[in-house]
Write a structure and sequence with these properties.
- Residues 10-343 form the Enoyl reductase (ER) domain.
- Keywords: Metal-binding, Oxidoreductase, Zinc.
- Its cofactor is Zn(2+).
- One of its GO terms (molecular function) is zinc ion binding.
- Belongs to the zinc-containing alcohol dehydrogenase family.
- The protein has 2 domains: 2-148 and 292-344, Quinone Oxidoreductase, Chain A, domain 1, CATH 3.90.180; 150-288, Rossmann fold (3-Layer(aba) Sandwich).
- The radius of gyration is 20 Å and the shape is globular.
- The longest helix is centred in the middle third of the chain and has 12 residues, at 149-160.
- The protein has helices at residues 39-45, 94-97, 127-130, 140-145, 149-160, 176-187, 199-207, 221-231, 246-254, 276-281, 297-305, 324-332; strands at residues 2-5, 14-17, 28-37, 62-69, 81-83, 121-124, 132-133, 168-172, 191-196, 212-215, 236-241, 256-264, 285-288, 315-319, 340-344.
- Helices cover 28% and strands 23% of the residues.
- It is of the alpha/beta class.
- Helix 6 (176-187) links the parallel strand 8 and strand 9.
- Strands 3, 4, 5, 6, 7, 14 and 15 form a 7-stranded mixed beta sheet that branches. It has a 6-stranded parallel beta sheet with strand order 10-9-8-11-12-13, with helices on both faces. It has a two-stranded antiparallel sheet with strand order 1-2.
Length: 346
Amino acid sequence: MRAVVFTEFGGAPELRDVPDPVPSVDGVVIRVETTGVCRSDAHGWLGHDDGIALPHVPGHELVGRIAAVGPEVTRFRVGERVTVPFVSACGRCPECADGNGQVCRNQTQPGFTHWGSFAELVALHNADVNLIRVPDELDSGAAALLGCRFATAYRGLVHRARLQRGERLLVVGCGGVGLSAAMIGVAVGAEVIAVDIDPVALERASSLGVAHTIDSSGLSESEVLDAITSVAPAGVHVSVEALGRQATMRLSVLALAPLGRQVQIGLFSEEPVIPLPAIIAKELSLHGSHGMPASDYPALLDLVLSGALDPARLIEHRISLADAPAALEAIASGDRSAGVTVVDIA
Protein backbone atom coordinates (compact mmCIF):
# COMPACT_ATOMS: atom_id res chain seq x y z
CA MET A 1 0.00 0.00 0.00
CA ARG A 2 0.95 3.67 -0.24
CA ALA A 3 1.47 5.52 3.02
CA VAL A 4 3.01 8.73 4.38
CA VAL A 5 6.03 7.68 6.45
CA PHE A 6 8.57 9.54 8.56
CA THR A 7 11.76 7.89 9.80
CA GLU A 8 12.92 10.60 12.20
CA PHE A 9 11.03 13.14 14.29
CA GLY A 10 10.79 16.37 12.37
CA GLY A 11 12.32 14.73 9.29
CA ALA A 12 10.62 15.07 5.94
CA PRO A 13 7.56 12.77 5.70
CA GLU A 14 7.43 10.86 2.42
CA LEU A 15 4.82 8.99 0.43
CA ARG A 16 6.15 5.50 -0.20
CA ASP A 17 5.14 1.88 -0.69
CA VAL A 18 5.04 -0.18 2.52
CA PRO A 19 3.69 -3.65 3.37
CA ASP A 20 -0.07 -4.00 3.81
CA PRO A 21 -1.21 -4.37 7.43
CA VAL A 22 -2.89 -7.58 8.60
CA PRO A 23 -5.70 -7.67 11.17
CA SER A 24 -5.06 -8.75 14.75
CA VAL A 25 -7.24 -11.61 16.00
CA ASP A 26 -9.83 -9.14 17.35
CA GLY A 27 -9.14 -6.38 14.85
CA VAL A 28 -9.81 -5.28 11.30
CA VAL A 29 -8.04 -3.61 8.42
CA ILE A 30 -9.82 -0.58 6.96
CA ARG A 31 -9.45 0.69 3.40
CA VAL A 32 -9.34 4.42 4.13
CA GLU A 33 -11.68 6.73 2.24
CA THR A 34 -10.75 9.98 3.97
CA THR A 35 -8.57 11.01 6.90
CA GLY A 36 -8.26 14.32 8.72
CA VAL A 37 -5.09 16.37 9.16
CA CYS A 38 -5.01 17.29 12.85
CA ARG A 39 -2.56 19.30 14.92
CA SER A 40 -2.07 16.20 17.07
CA ASP A 41 -0.57 14.48 14.02
CA ALA A 42 1.97 17.29 13.82
CA HIS A 43 2.81 16.96 17.51
CA GLY A 44 3.49 13.26 16.95
CA TRP A 45 5.67 13.97 13.92
CA LEU A 46 7.70 16.50 15.92
CA GLY A 47 8.39 13.95 18.66
CA HIS A 48 6.08 15.29 21.37
CA ASP A 49 4.54 11.85 21.98
CA ASP A 50 6.85 9.33 23.61
CA GLY A 51 4.67 6.38 22.51
CA ILE A 52 5.58 6.64 18.83
CA ALA A 53 8.13 4.20 17.43
CA LEU A 54 9.98 4.91 14.19
CA PRO A 55 9.42 4.53 11.30
CA HIS A 56 5.87 5.75 11.62
CA VAL A 57 2.67 6.53 9.69
CA PRO A 58 0.53 9.31 11.24
CA GLY A 59 -3.23 9.84 11.07
CA HIS A 60 -6.05 9.14 13.53
CA GLU A 61 -9.29 10.63 12.11
CA LEU A 62 -10.68 8.30 9.48
CA VAL A 63 -13.57 6.68 7.71
CA GLY A 64 -13.42 3.72 5.36
CA ARG A 65 -14.65 0.23 4.56
CA ILE A 66 -13.56 -2.97 6.24
CA ALA A 67 -11.12 -4.84 4.01
CA ALA A 68 -10.24 -7.74 6.34
CA VAL A 69 -11.38 -9.04 9.75
CA GLY A 70 -9.66 -11.05 12.45
CA PRO A 71 -11.08 -14.43 13.47
CA GLU A 72 -12.49 -13.19 16.80
CA VAL A 73 -14.49 -10.28 15.32
CA THR A 74 -18.23 -11.03 15.55
CA ARG A 75 -20.10 -7.74 15.05
CA PHE A 76 -18.60 -6.50 11.78
CA ARG A 77 -17.92 -7.89 8.33
CA VAL A 78 -15.93 -7.04 5.21
CA GLY A 79 -17.43 -4.19 3.21
CA GLU A 80 -19.07 -2.27 6.04
CA ARG A 81 -18.40 1.46 6.22
CA VAL A 82 -17.10 2.52 9.62
CA THR A 83 -15.28 5.13 11.65
CA VAL A 84 -13.54 4.80 15.01
CA PRO A 85 -12.73 7.01 18.02
CA PHE A 86 -9.07 8.03 18.04
CA VAL A 87 -8.85 6.31 21.44
CA SER A 88 -9.54 2.62 20.82
CA ALA A 89 -10.60 0.87 24.02
CA CYS A 90 -9.69 -2.64 25.14
CA GLY A 91 -13.21 -3.47 26.35
CA ARG A 92 -11.89 -5.40 29.36
CA CYS A 93 -10.48 -2.97 31.95
CA PRO A 94 -12.49 -1.30 34.76
CA GLU A 95 -12.76 1.96 32.83
CA CYS A 96 -14.23 0.17 29.82
CA ALA A 97 -16.62 -1.78 32.06
CA ASP A 98 -17.93 1.57 33.34
CA GLY A 99 -18.47 2.83 29.78
CA ASN A 100 -15.43 5.09 29.77
CA GLY A 101 -13.34 3.63 26.98
CA GLN A 102 -11.95 7.09 26.17
CA VAL A 103 -9.73 6.74 29.25
CA CYS A 104 -9.04 3.01 28.83
CA ARG A 105 -5.85 2.01 30.63
CA ASN A 106 -4.93 -0.31 27.72
CA GLN A 107 -5.95 2.04 24.92
CA THR A 108 -4.49 2.02 21.44
CA GLN A 109 -4.46 5.02 19.12
CA PRO A 110 -3.96 4.74 15.36
CA GLY A 111 -1.28 7.20 14.34
CA PHE A 112 0.33 7.05 17.78
CA THR A 113 0.60 3.59 19.34
CA HIS A 114 0.68 2.02 15.87
CA TRP A 115 0.61 3.06 12.22
CA GLY A 116 -2.23 5.38 11.32
CA SER A 117 -4.53 6.47 8.53
CA PHE A 118 -2.26 8.53 6.27
CA ALA A 119 -2.32 5.37 4.20
CA GLU A 120 -4.50 3.34 1.90
CA LEU A 121 -5.01 0.75 4.66
CA VAL A 122 -4.98 0.98 8.46
CA ALA A 123 -5.26 -1.69 11.16
CA LEU A 124 -7.61 -1.13 14.11
CA HIS A 125 -7.78 -3.24 17.25
CA ASN A 126 -10.66 -4.55 19.40
CA ALA A 127 -13.05 -3.95 16.54
CA ASP A 128 -16.24 -5.15 18.25
CA VAL A 129 -15.74 -2.53 20.98
CA ASN A 130 -14.61 0.40 18.86
CA LEU A 131 -16.06 0.47 15.38
CA ILE A 132 -19.04 2.70 14.53
CA ARG A 133 -21.13 2.08 11.41
CA VAL A 134 -21.43 5.10 9.12
CA PRO A 135 -24.32 5.56 6.66
CA ASP A 136 -23.35 5.63 3.00
CA GLU A 137 -24.97 9.04 2.53
CA LEU A 138 -22.72 10.79 5.06
CA ASP A 139 -19.87 12.76 3.44
CA SER A 140 -16.55 11.00 4.00
CA GLY A 141 -14.86 14.17 5.25
CA ALA A 142 -17.61 14.79 7.79
CA ALA A 143 -17.42 11.17 8.95
CA ALA A 144 -13.64 11.30 9.37
CA LEU A 145 -13.85 14.43 11.54
CA LEU A 146 -16.13 12.60 13.98
CA GLY A 147 -13.16 10.49 15.09
CA CYS A 148 -11.34 13.20 17.02
CA ARG A 149 -12.18 16.89 17.11
CA PHE A 150 -15.99 16.70 16.93
CA ALA A 151 -16.20 13.75 19.32
CA THR A 152 -13.84 15.42 21.79
CA ALA A 153 -15.80 18.68 21.68
CA TYR A 154 -19.15 16.88 21.89
CA ARG A 155 -18.15 14.87 24.92
CA GLY A 156 -16.67 17.92 26.62
CA LEU A 157 -19.74 20.07 26.11
CA VAL A 158 -22.63 17.61 26.23
CA HIS A 159 -21.44 14.80 28.51
CA ARG A 160 -18.98 16.58 30.79
CA ALA A 161 -20.21 20.20 31.09
CA ARG A 162 -23.88 19.35 30.39
CA LEU A 163 -24.36 22.39 28.16
CA GLN A 164 -28.06 23.26 27.90
CA ARG A 165 -30.19 25.09 25.34
CA GLY A 166 -30.21 28.81 26.07
CA GLU A 167 -26.96 28.82 28.03
CA ARG A 168 -24.04 31.01 27.02
CA LEU A 169 -20.96 29.19 25.71
CA LEU A 170 -17.56 30.86 25.33
CA VAL A 171 -15.10 29.34 22.86
CA VAL A 172 -11.53 30.62 23.19
CA GLY A 173 -9.52 29.75 20.08
CA CYS A 174 -11.17 29.21 16.70
CA GLY A 175 -9.00 26.52 15.16
CA GLY A 176 -10.42 23.15 14.15
CA VAL A 177 -11.32 22.02 17.69
CA GLY A 178 -12.65 25.41 18.74
CA LEU A 179 -14.86 25.74 15.68
CA SER A 180 -16.08 22.17 16.20
CA ALA A 181 -17.09 23.15 19.74
CA ALA A 182 -18.78 26.31 18.47
CA MET A 183 -20.78 24.32 15.91
CA ILE A 184 -21.90 21.83 18.56
CA GLY A 185 -22.89 24.70 20.84
CA VAL A 186 -25.01 26.20 18.07
CA ALA A 187 -26.53 22.79 17.28
CA VAL A 188 -27.69 22.23 20.87
CA GLY A 189 -29.16 25.74 21.12
CA ALA A 190 -26.56 27.63 23.14
CA GLU A 191 -25.68 31.29 22.59
CA VAL A 192 -22.05 31.08 21.45
CA ILE A 193 -19.35 33.72 21.95
CA ALA A 194 -16.05 33.15 20.13
CA VAL A 195 -12.69 34.80 20.90
CA ASP A 196 -9.63 34.73 18.62
CA ILE A 197 -6.90 37.00 17.31
CA ASP A 198 -7.58 36.07 13.67
CA PRO A 199 -10.39 37.99 11.95
CA VAL A 200 -10.68 35.30 9.26
CA ALA A 201 -11.28 32.64 11.91
CA LEU A 202 -13.87 34.86 13.58
CA GLU A 203 -15.60 35.46 10.25
CA ARG A 204 -15.72 31.69 9.78
CA ALA A 205 -17.20 31.33 13.26
CA SER A 206 -19.94 33.83 12.42
CA SER A 207 -20.77 31.94 9.23
CA LEU A 208 -21.22 28.80 11.34
CA GLY A 209 -23.84 30.43 13.56
CA VAL A 210 -21.79 31.97 16.37
CA ALA A 211 -23.78 34.85 17.87
CA HIS A 212 -20.90 37.06 19.05
CA THR A 213 -17.25 37.28 18.01
CA ILE A 214 -14.45 39.14 19.80
CA ASP A 215 -11.15 40.01 18.13
CA SER A 216 -8.69 39.87 21.03
CA SER A 217 -5.60 40.93 19.08
CA GLY A 218 -3.83 43.76 20.91
CA LEU A 219 -6.28 43.67 23.85
CA SER A 220 -5.37 43.17 27.50
CA GLU A 221 -7.03 40.44 29.54
CA SER A 222 -9.30 42.97 31.25
CA GLU A 223 -10.33 44.44 27.91
CA VAL A 224 -11.27 41.02 26.55
CA LEU A 225 -13.20 40.22 29.73
CA ASP A 226 -15.03 43.55 29.38
CA ALA A 227 -15.97 42.64 25.82
CA ILE A 228 -17.30 39.27 27.01
CA THR A 229 -19.22 40.94 29.84
CA SER A 230 -20.85 43.31 27.37
CA VAL A 231 -22.74 40.36 25.88
CA ALA A 232 -22.79 38.12 28.98
CA PRO A 233 -23.09 40.51 31.98
CA ALA A 234 -23.14 37.74 34.60
CA GLY A 235 -20.49 35.66 32.84
CA VAL A 236 -20.83 32.57 30.68
CA HIS A 237 -22.22 29.25 31.79
CA VAL A 238 -19.66 27.10 29.95
CA SER A 239 -16.29 27.92 28.42
CA VAL A 240 -13.98 25.94 26.15
CA GLU A 241 -10.25 26.56 25.89
CA ALA A 242 -9.05 25.03 22.62
CA LEU A 243 -5.50 26.37 22.25
CA GLY A 244 -3.50 25.08 25.23
CA ARG A 245 -2.04 28.41 26.32
CA GLN A 246 -1.70 29.89 29.78
CA ALA A 247 -3.27 33.25 28.93
CA THR A 248 -6.27 31.83 27.09
CA MET A 249 -6.92 29.18 29.74
CA ARG A 250 -6.94 31.90 32.40
CA LEU A 251 -9.28 34.05 30.31
CA SER A 252 -11.61 31.11 29.79
CA VAL A 253 -11.86 30.48 33.54
CA LEU A 254 -12.23 34.13 34.57
CA ALA A 255 -15.10 34.67 32.10
CA LEU A 256 -17.27 32.07 33.86
CA ALA A 257 -20.33 32.94 35.89
CA PRO A 258 -20.65 31.50 39.41
CA LEU A 259 -21.03 27.70 39.19
CA GLY A 260 -19.73 27.84 35.62
CA ARG A 261 -18.07 24.89 33.87
CA GLN A 262 -14.70 25.05 32.13
CA VAL A 263 -13.93 22.47 29.41
CA GLN A 264 -10.21 22.08 28.75
CA ILE A 265 -9.44 20.59 25.34
CA GLY A 266 -6.27 22.47 24.37
CA LEU A 267 -3.09 20.56 25.22
CA PHE A 268 -0.23 22.29 27.05
CA SER A 269 3.46 21.79 26.41
CA GLU A 270 4.18 23.04 29.96
CA GLU A 271 2.18 22.78 33.19
CA PRO A 272 -0.16 25.82 33.39
CA VAL A 273 -0.89 27.95 36.43
CA ILE A 274 -4.61 27.63 37.19
CA PRO A 275 -6.49 30.63 38.69
CA LEU A 276 -7.61 28.72 41.80
CA PRO A 277 -8.95 31.74 43.75
CA ALA A 278 -11.63 32.30 41.08
CA ILE A 279 -12.41 28.56 40.95
CA ILE A 280 -12.90 28.44 44.72
CA ALA A 281 -14.78 31.74 45.12
CA LYS A 282 -17.26 31.03 42.29
CA GLU A 283 -17.39 27.24 42.80
CA LEU A 284 -16.33 26.62 39.23
CA SER A 285 -15.76 23.15 37.81
CA LEU A 286 -12.99 22.08 35.43
CA HIS A 287 -13.58 19.27 32.93
CA GLY A 288 -11.15 17.52 30.63
CA SER A 289 -12.23 15.75 27.46
CA HIS A 290 -10.19 12.93 25.93
CA GLY A 291 -12.42 11.80 23.10
CA MET A 292 -15.55 9.69 23.34
CA PRO A 293 -16.24 5.94 23.54
CA ALA A 294 -17.87 4.29 20.55
CA SER A 295 -20.96 3.49 22.63
CA ASP A 296 -21.74 7.22 22.92
CA TYR A 297 -21.54 7.98 19.19
CA PRO A 298 -25.21 7.33 18.26
CA ALA A 299 -26.43 10.65 19.70
CA LEU A 300 -23.67 12.56 17.87
CA LEU A 301 -24.47 10.77 14.63
CA ASP A 302 -28.18 11.51 15.10
CA LEU A 303 -27.35 15.21 15.45
CA VAL A 304 -25.34 15.07 12.22
CA LEU A 305 -27.93 13.07 10.28
CA SER A 306 -30.70 15.42 11.43
CA GLY A 307 -28.89 18.30 9.71
CA ALA A 308 -28.45 20.28 12.94
CA LEU A 309 -24.68 19.67 12.82
CA ASP A 310 -22.74 19.48 9.56
CA PRO A 311 -19.02 18.79 10.13
CA ALA A 312 -18.39 19.11 6.37
CA ARG A 313 -18.90 22.88 6.70
CA LEU A 314 -15.62 23.02 8.59
CA ILE A 315 -13.60 21.51 5.72
CA GLU A 316 -11.46 24.11 3.99
CA HIS A 317 -9.26 21.89 1.81
CA ARG A 318 -9.59 18.37 0.36
CA ILE A 319 -6.24 17.03 -0.82
CA SER A 320 -4.73 13.81 -2.12
CA LEU A 321 -2.44 11.44 -0.20
CA ALA A 322 0.48 12.79 -2.24
CA ASP A 323 -0.20 16.25 -0.76
CA ALA A 324 -0.45 15.00 2.83
CA PRO A 325 3.27 15.40 3.72
CA ALA A 326 3.17 19.11 2.86
CA ALA A 327 -0.08 19.54 4.82
CA LEU A 328 1.50 17.92 7.87
CA GLU A 329 4.51 20.22 7.65
CA ALA A 330 2.26 23.25 7.20
CA ILE A 331 0.18 22.60 10.30
CA ALA A 332 3.36 21.92 12.31
CA SER A 333 4.75 25.28 11.22
CA GLY A 334 1.85 27.09 12.86
CA ASP A 335 -0.60 27.38 9.97
CA ARG A 336 -3.97 28.35 11.47
CA SER A 337 -6.31 28.37 8.50
CA ALA A 338 -9.94 28.97 9.45
CA GLY A 339 -10.99 25.43 8.69
CA VAL A 340 -9.60 21.92 8.42
CA THR A 341 -7.91 19.83 5.76
CA VAL A 342 -8.90 16.28 4.92
CA VAL A 343 -7.11 13.76 2.73
CA ASP A 344 -9.26 11.84 0.24
CA ILE A 345 -7.63 8.48 -0.44
CA ALA A 346 -10.18 6.01 -1.83
